[in-house]
Amino acid sequence: MSYSLSRKKALLEWRLYLFILPSILLVGLFCYYPAINAIYHSFFDWQGGDFKQFVGLDNFRRAWNDPTLLHSFGTVFILILANMVKMIPSIFTAVMVHRLTCEKWQYVYRVLLVLPMIIPSMVTLFIWKFFFDPNLGVLNHFLNRTGLQTVLIHLDHFCGWGGVFQTGVPTAWLSTPTLIIPSLILWGFPWIGAIGVLIFLSGLQSIGAEVYEAAELDGVNSFQKFLYIEFPLLMTQVRISLVLMVIGTLRDFYLQFLLLGENGGAGGKGMVPGLWMYNRAFVAGEFGYACAIGIILFGFILILTFIQNKYVRVEK
């Protein structure tokens, strides 16, 4: 009798696995198959058609000596460091919303943070492209109205920036090589990401009220609460955000593509690995070489993720 019941239970479990089989097949078809296909074609001189010639590791050797690719990795590492700094406003915003004593106002601020997520990302990017416009852009008008343009002109003369800022000449933020990376860093100001704030808020809300009560009895001030209680208990969320940020910065290129074009702007100063991979595939028609760049990019993402998991530790 017990054998019959266990057999029926095992049969029922196998039937349950059939429900997730379509999902597994779709993930394999649309995620794993393209990745395996890219690994395969990275060893070929392939232009996207039926003809391909096996070249072994030549694509990877070419990538190792490709100055544009090496420069693009330098650019993306600068952006990673900048994005790490950009996480700070989101953390402080989450802390301030969490410390509101009125639950109604907490809800209002959460809604206000989520509302910008409704706007399509493409629209946001085109708004920022208009923001940097040299003639009609908001940034140049703001600098002129506040007198900061004059300060930048004096700094240009003092620091020897080569006449990037000049009197009576609109600043071309996206077409001046030395201003492209600062423009990419400035993008998204004041750098309060809705998703980041919500992630940090979820971590803060898991802190028990008794922890704050004990801290108040010990006489700690607001900054000490953040330094010794909130930030250490937020390290799990900070770690997750760091991993997602690094992966997104290394992988994505839509910002550079829409703001600067397929060549990364003037002098290729805004070129990142993802954009160079796109350029080689759909501009130069070198799909095999683009696949090799994608594999190299995948390797860098794995290495940086491993380093973060090893050194950004969360004390339990």
Structure description:
Helix content is 71%, strand content 2%. The protein is mainly α and 316 residues long. A two-stranded antiparallel sheet has the order 1-2. The chain is flat. The two termini are 47 Å apart.
Mean pLDDT figure: 86
- What radius of gyration results from the CA coordinates? 25 Å
Largest sheet report: 2 strands, antiparallel
How many DSSP E strands? 2
Helix count equals 15
SS-based class: mainly alpha
Order of helices and strands: HEEHHHHHHHHHHHHHH
| Structural shape | flat
Helix content: over 70%
User: Largest beta sheet: what is the strand line-up?
Assistant: 1-2
CA distance, first residue to last residue: 47 Å
Tell me the β content: under 5%
Low-confidence stretches: none
